[in-house]
Structure formats: structure tokens, C-alpha cells
UniProtKB/TrEMBL annotation:
Keyword Flavoprotein assigned: yes
Keyword DNA damage tagged: no
Source domain of life: Bacteria
Organism of origin: Actinoplanes lutulentus
PANTHER family recorded: P-HYDROXYBENZOATE HYDROXYLASE, TRK SYSTEM POTASSIUM UPTAKE PROTEIN
Lineage of the species this protein comes from: Bacteria, Bacillati, Actinomycetota, Actinomycetes, Micromonosporales
Keywords from the named record: FAD, Flavoprotein, Monooxygenase, Oxidoreductase
Domain FAD-binding: 2-337
InterPro entries per the UniProt record, alphabetical: FAD-bd, FAD/NAD-bd_sf, RIFMO-like
Protein name: p-hydroxybenzoate 3-monooxygenase
Coiled-coil positions: none
Amino acid sequence: MRTQVAIIGAGPAGLLLSHLLAQGGVESVVLETRSEEYVAARIRAGILEHSSVELLESVGLGDRIRAEGDHHRGIYLQWPGERHHLDFVDLVGRSVWVYGQTEVQKDLIKARAADGQEIHYEVTEVELHDDHVTFTDKSGQSQRLDATAIAGCDGSFGPSRQAVPAAETYEKVYPYSWFGILADVAPSTDELIYAWHPNGFALHSMRSATVSRLYLQVPNGTDPQSWSDDRIWDELATRLGHGQNGWKLTPGPITDKSVLPMRSYVQTPMRHHNLFLAGDAAHIVPPTGAKGLNLAIADVALLSKALIAKVKEGDERLADRYSDDAQRRVWRCTHFSWWMTTMLHTSGDPFDAQLQLSQLKWVANSEAGATGLAENYAGLPIGY
Ligand code: FAD
Ligand code: DHB
């Protein structure tokens, strides 16, 4: 088999890249170890930045976001006794959309199917070489895929990251995890609540008018099954301030429980010869601030342009700059995610707690502080 770009991974980075390349007249083949059903249903991120929505809309993927997504002007930031609304539209003229990664995946899968995109699901033994990839297809046949370029979009556990020799890596592991639940209950808030509490951080997010998504800071190694539903709702009520100023958290049936460890990781360069890394294959952020999915989208927006110029015109200039260009935004988002995480998660140290509260009060009450958070949260323009 031969194609112009071999894409490893059918997550949001890989599928969106195949879509952008097709729109630019470049063909690709996507290889994915999991099944189509699995990649469409994997519950992960839920917030799309302004520029992610603009990009998806510009390539025909915005209809369902507009119809079924939920536009949010900002977020609530709170600590015991106080809740402040930060209005990103007023502060920076940009905003965010609540639209689950599962829905982004479904839209991409549908659009790629309508376009006749070749995607091989349930492949095994994927091996990267300079100008080709070998793999075993679903029926057990060994295959060789020759390509002008290879895009490593295979997330944090895929083989692409290791195929960049002598890469520099930067890593920070946090001493806490997120316990996430999905619940069949209307959200108790119109916009997301990020709550600092002496017991630990809590976040009230949502997926739709009838589905809530909530998170609790828990110690690393927590077994999600060791928490009863009542204990989860009680702790969420405490940390989110049930009863304060008449606000109520409405509990409901929990349909999913999972624990997510948190780390920051950056690998550079994001290119080695014909191999280009994008999304979680090159970097991981802790989830606070909802940057992971948006960063994957921003990477492939740059990468698609570089690969179209390289494959169609033999023009390597954007490809040569890709890693440096992408890393500017990667480090901005790495800093923002670290900052949100360390401002909101408790460490048990009373000195740290006072610094966090001071920082939160400044962000909530100073226009300069609020603008900095809003600019990063709503997202810098693609190409920043
Ligand atoms: P992925 O979505 O990981 O896609 C990579 C794909 O490559 C996968 O489909 C994988 O099966 C495939 N693959 C792996 N190995 C191979 C191989 N050898 N050959 C072929 N294919 C392969 N971000 C947020 O902003 N908010 C959140 O709440 C949030 N929650 C998260 C929860 C979890 C459990 C995880 C893991 C991540 C979460 N993220 C969150 C991060 C966000 O989901 C990711 O940043 C985003 O999925 C990155 O997209 P990607 O396409 O780069 O990688
Ligand atoms: C969600 C995840 C985040 O990391 C975040 O900061 C906000 C929302 C979510 O899954 O809904």
C-alpha cells in the first residue's frame, strides 16, 4: 500500500489531521489499534476553546456544535463562602463551548466515512520506519504502508513518541488524581464551577442539559469502586458549597466512575525526518483548564499546513518550523494547566493554602488577573 501521509492513531488529532489533509488535496491512511466503537465512546474532555470551534466550523464540522453544544461565556471560581463569575466575553471577547470529545470523535468519524477515508481499526504490531509503517490488519494479514510523511497521533502510550531519538523530555507528576463521574442529572449550574476547598479541589462540569460531569481531587492510587455513590455526592456537596447562598447540588444516578492520574509532559522536537508528532503523542497536560484536546487540535492545524506544502509542493519550510511553531503554544498551555492545577489543588500545607487563596482572590477581583485567566482559558488564536 502507498499513501501520501500515514497517520498513526484515530483520536481527535489523527482524525482531524486526515480531514484537514483531505481538504487540502492530500491523501492519508489512518491506523488505529482500537475498534471504531471504542474510539467513538471513550469519555474524556468536554470543553472546546474559541479557536478550536472556529477551526472545526471552517472545515464543515461545526453544525452539531452549534445545534447541540452549549456556549459558555465564562466560568465560576470559588472558595469557601465566595463564588465569582469570570465573564470571558467581557474580558477578552472570546468564549468556550461545552461539547464532549465523544461528540467531536463521532462528527469526525462520520465526516471521514462520507469522504471515503481509509481507516484500519483494530490493527496490531504497528512499527514505524523512515518511509513506511508495517502493521498487522484486523484479519491477521501483515501489511506495509509506504508514505511520504508519517504523523504520530497515537497518544501517550503509542510507539511514535519513542521513534524520535535523543528527544528532550520534561515531566512533572502531581501527587493527586481526579475522580471523575458522569451522572444522569441536569447540571446544578449554568457554567462550570472550579472550587478550591480545604478537603481538595472539585469541579462541576457537564455534557448536556441532562448529563453532569463532576470531578474530585483524590489521592493517587484511589480505587473508584471504593467510594459509594452517597460518599461521592456528599463530598461534592461539601466542596462545591451546597447550601451556601441558597445554592444546591442535585445528585442523580452515576453512570461512570474513573480515576485519572495527573502529569505534565513535553517532548521536543516534535519531528524526526519524515515523522511528525501531534497531540498527546508529544505532550500531556493535567486536565485542570481543559487544554489537552484543544492543544491536539491546534497541533494538527499547524501540521496539516506543513504537510500539504511538503507533499504537494515539495516545500519543506513549514515542516522545518513545525516543532518550534507548535512548541510555543505547547509551553503556554503547559504553564496554564500547571498554574490552574497548583492554584486549585490542596497539598495539605497551610502556607501553600494561604498563597492559593491570595492568588484566587487576586484573579477573581482584579481585571488584570481575570483577563490573564480568561485569555488562556478561552484560548489563544491558532498559530499563536
Ligand atoms: P488520543 O485521544 O489518546 O488518541 C490516540 C489514538 O491512538 C487512540 O485512539 C489510541 O487507541 C491510538 N493508538 C495508540 N497506540 C497506537 C498504535 N500503536 N497504533 C495505532 N494507534 C494507536 N483533556 C481535557 O482537556 N479534559 C479532560 O477532562 C480530559 N480527560 C481525559 C481523561 C483521560 C482518561 C485521558 C487519557 C485524557 C483526558 N484528556 C482530557 C486529554 C484529552 O482527552 C487528550 O488530550 C486528547 O484525547 C488528545 O488527543 P490525541 O488524538 O492526541 O490522543
Ligand atoms: C472538563 C474537564 C476539564 O479538565 C476542565 O477543566 C473542565 C471540564 C470536563 O471533562 O467537562
